[in-house]
Amino acid sequence: MATRTPRTIKVCLTNNGDDAESPWAHDLGPAGGPKGSRKVRLVNVPFLHAKPTWGDVIVVSPVEDGLLTWDRGGVAWAQIGKRIAEDGGRWAMILDYAVGSGSGDAAFRALVKACKAADIVCEGAWGPSRREPGRAYLAVGRALTAGQVMAKLRAAALPCTLVQIHPKPARRARPRPARRSRA
Q1: Domain hosting residue 30, numbered range
Q2: Does 175 sit behind a cis peptide bond, omega within 30 degrees of 0 on the bond before it?
Q3: Residue 173: what are its φ and ψ, rounded to 5°?
Q4: Same domain, yes or no, for 49 and 69?
Q5: CA distance 150 to 136
Q6: Domain count across the chain
Q7: Label partner for 96 (CA 20 to 30 A): which of 42, 109, 133, 134?
Q8: What pTM was computed for the model?
Q9: Bridge-partner residues for 138, per DSSP?
Q10: Is the same domain home to 102 and 129?
Q11: At 70, which CATH number?
């Protein structure tokens, strides 16, 4: 018997009514909670919420307007796992990509291809313009650090310059001048 592909639906993510956004999710069926609650797996990389992200399973419940909603409810970042039914094993990373004289579309396609080769989900927020870089949101497997992601993507010789936005890159320590010995 063939496995049925789950129905794709729009859900809402919010934090006490703020930072509302509507990613796509696969409907996995009824869930405990208020009447009409559903268990869903996110199939987008949200822009306003670092977690949940692509692959995470959450419980969404209808609100006044009927929209199936997940509310962070002000839970501290360190406790966000308590609000996720099943962690999909990915974390969110944000990159800007600047293109010199080439095509922004070609640069984004190359970035997506390099991400796919590293098992990273890449979604575009906006493309680059003459004055501003484009922005991409990534869902990165927990086995990779931000530094490893940047190294892999830079090794792909992309037709763009990458700048890590989130998580904020660690500052490189400046080399200290050698101390002179007193003789």
Answers
A1: 8-83
A2: no
A3: -70, 135
A4: yes
A5: 13
A6: 2
A7: 42
A8: 0.86
A9: 93, 122
A10: yes
A11: 2.30.30
**Strand ordering across the sheet containing 134-141:** 121-126, 134-141, 90-98, 161-166
pLDDT at residue 181 above 60? no
Residue 182's pLDDT is: 58
Peptide bond between residue 52 and the one before it cis (omega within 30 degrees of 0): yes
Task: Please tell me whether residue 38 adopts helix, strand or coil conformation.
Answer: strand
- Residue 127: what are its φ and ψ, rounded to 5°? -85, 165
* C-alpha torsion sign, points 119, 120, 123, 124: negative
Per-residue pLDDT, averaged over 26-43, amounts to 96
Positive or negative, the Cα torsion across 158, 164, 167, 169?
Answer: positive
CA distances to 59, 95, 120 from 146, in Å: 29, 11, 12
Contact between residue 94 and residue 166 where contact means Cβ atoms under 8 Å apart? yes
Shared-domain flag, residues 135 and 150? yes
How does DSSP classify residue 4?
P
Pick from 161, 45, 164: nearest CA to 104: 161
Task: Give the residue from 52, 83, 114 where a domain finishes.
Answer: 83
- Looking at the fold, whether 103 and 160 belong to one and the same domain comes out as yes
**What digits encode the pLDDT tens for the residues 107-158?**
999 999 999 999 999 999 999 998 899 999 999 999 999 999 999 999 999 9
How is residue 38 written in tokens?
């559903």
